[in-house]
Design brief:
Layout (H helix, E strand, L loop, with lengths): L8 E3 L6 H10 L3 E3 L1 H19 L24 H12 L3 E4 L2 H15 L8 H13 L1 E3 L2 E3 L8 H11 L4 E4 L2 E4 H7 L11 H6 L3 H31 L9 H5 L4 H13 L18 H4 L1 H23 L7 E3 L4 E3 L7 H29 L22 H17 L21 H32 L7 H13 L10 H12 L3 H6 L2
Parallel strand pairs: 1-2
Antiparallel strand pairs: 3-5, 4-6, 6-7, 8-9
Helix pairs in contact: 1-4, 1-9, 3-6, 4-5, 4-9, 9-11, 9-13, 9-14, 9-16, 11-13, 13-14, 14-15, 14-16, 15-16, 16-18
Length: 509
């Protein structure tokens, strides 16, 4: 996945893409709102005011929340109810989300509100847009969401800043939310009836984390093919396994794409071998790379599809259908669709790292590495070379296996058993993001292990694509002639792979 968006993002609730979310979250792309969405929000707000004037009993408008849904709240207390809701629900725990995640959360909440089913005033949504465009980023703790009734706790921390409370980052400094708004030239707004609930009742936290993790994982799948190709050459891999004829008769799209990538990268190689030339067939971690990588690729396409549906959905409760003069209490806030997708993402990214670690072992193990020096060092014994690099990869892969345990199969009842099944989707999304980050580290180790191995062969014998990949690695990290601290080297390559323009380089391979 290559980032190309540069135009301002105009939200309308219907057409936001994952790439646009990445643009706003990471690259500061400016945000505006569609005029039709503003009109829709205005009409819905007018209907809310009508319900208030008629003293209708509507959940969250003239009632309490959760188990208190049967408790009537008078019109005079409706404003106090919103502030009490946000303050009481701001129960987040742990370290704050990265600023890019919170920016994505803000954008997704804006987009959901722009659909016009939440009953919020357009000026509140415009204030949130101003926060994005002027760089006010609420401090939102990572933990505390059950992923049903929406991401209540983390979204409450975001909402605090809208009326001048809580904390926020502004120009890289953490400060009181009201101070950040003042420095950015934004005047906080007092919340009206229904608006507090409209701000926090949704799946935007799990979805924002998931969008960024999925984007990174789709890029990771591209890098996995690159690493496998480089390792195949270092180990005199059998090229027949990547022939299109094999993959055409098992036509999973991801499998065919991975095989095509590896074959293209190794075009012209004088290190790859033919069936029977050195051996009849390779170990699975080489020969089955297209099948394993491809399965993750296909899963990631499915996950991206689910995320794009969710980021263009109304996930409030209740939902207000002003044109029909109806208010419906439902369950669109339940995060199960994203929870399942995030667990699938965790498994898919874990497998890309799992098979990569097996290839690393083949590169460093003198019993498996086709005559390369043990642990890829010239002076084994005195020097350890890449011995502990494989340990580090194995440790991270093992950690991923623990993290990949599904979150969505757990549920703890809450709110006096009114909310008796929850998704744990935000936990699933956070775990998936960590797994993806870990997987980048494993692939960085594989790339540098393969580059080191190829220095003991002859890099000039590489294929047209793998030679360019080798050169890019060597531009950043030198051959390990003597033992040194490798941690920095792996971090350098992992960070390069994550950079927005790195796939532009990859496209040239």
């Amino acid at each position: 996945m290559q980032y190309t968006a540069v135009k301002p993002v105009i939200v309308n609730g219907h057409s936001l893409t994952i790439e646009q979310v990445v643009g706003v979250a990471r690259h500061g792309v400016q945000v505006g709102i569609d005029a039709d969405s503003t009109l829709k929000m205005q009409r819905t707000r007018q209907y809310v005011e009508k319900l208030l004037s008629e003293k209708k009993v509507v959940y969250g408008l003239t009632t309490g929340f959760g188990k208190f849904s049967d408790t009537y709240i008078s019109g005079e207390d409706a404003k106090a109810l919103q502030v009490n809701l946000i303050r009481s629900h701001a129960c987040g725990i742990g370290s704050p989300f990265a600023e890019e995640v919170v920016r994505a959360i803000l954008l997704l909440r804006i987009n959901a509100l722009a659909l016009g089913y939440s009953g919020i005033r357009p000026e509140v949504v415009q204030l949130m847009i101003d926060m994005l465009n002027r760089g006010v980023t609420p401090v939102v703790p990572e933990k505390g969401s059950l992923g049903a009734s929406g991401d209540l706790a983390p979204l409450s921390h975001l909402a605090l800043v809208i009326f001048g409370e809580g904390e926020a980052y502004y120009q890289g400094v953490r400060m009181p939310g009201g101070k950040a708004m003042e420095l950015a030239g934004i005047t906080p707004l007092a919340l009206e009836a229904k608006e507090g609930l409209a701000l926090i009742n949704g799946t935007q936290v799990m979805t924002a984390v998931g969008v960024l993790a999925c984007w990174d994982a789709q890029r990771l799948a591209e890098w996995a093919d690159c690493a496998a190709a480089l390792t195949c050459e270092a180990l005199y891999g059998v090229r027949d396994a990547f022939d299109a004829a094999t993959h055409a008769i098992r036509p999973h799209r991801g499998q065919r794409k991975s095989a095509e990538n590896i074959k293209k990268l190794t075009t012209g190689s004088r290190l790859m071998t033919r069936q029977g030339e050195r051996r009849v067939q390779d170990a699975y971690s080489l020969r089955c790379a297209p099948q394993v990588h491809g399965a993750s690729r296909d899963a990631l396409e499915y996950i991206a599809e689910k995320l794009e549906i969710e980021i263009n959905s109304a996930t409030d409760n209740p939902l207000i259908f002003a044109d029909e003069e109806r208010v419906i209490s439902g369950g669109n806030f339940h995060g199960q669709p994203i929870a399942l997708a995030m667990d699938h993402l965790s498994i898919s990214a874990s497998e890309l790292a799992n098979i990569s670690e097996r290839r690393i072992e083949r590169l460093v193990n003198p019993h498996l590495n086709e005559g390369l020096p043990p642990f890829l060092t010239k002076n084994g014994g005195l020097q350890s070379g890449f011995m502990i690099a494989q340990y580090a990869a194995a440790a991270v892969v093992s950690e991923n296996k623990s993290l990949a345990h599904p979150a969505s199969v757990d549920s703890i009842p809450s709110s006096g058993n009114q909310e008796d099944h929850v998704s744990m989707g935000t936990i699933g999304a956070r775990k998936a993001r960590q797994i993806v980050d870990n997987a980048y580290s494993v692939l960085a180790i594989e790339l540098l292990s393969a580059a080191q191995a190829l220095d003991f062969r002859d890099p000039q014998l590489l294929g047209s694509g793998t030679k360019k990949l080798y050169d890019r690695c060597r531009e950043r990290v030198a051959f390990v002639d003597e033992d040194r601290v490798l941690s920095h080297d792996f971090q350098t390559i992992a960070e390069w792979m994550k950079q927005a323009d790195s796939l532009a380089e990859l496209a040239e391979l």
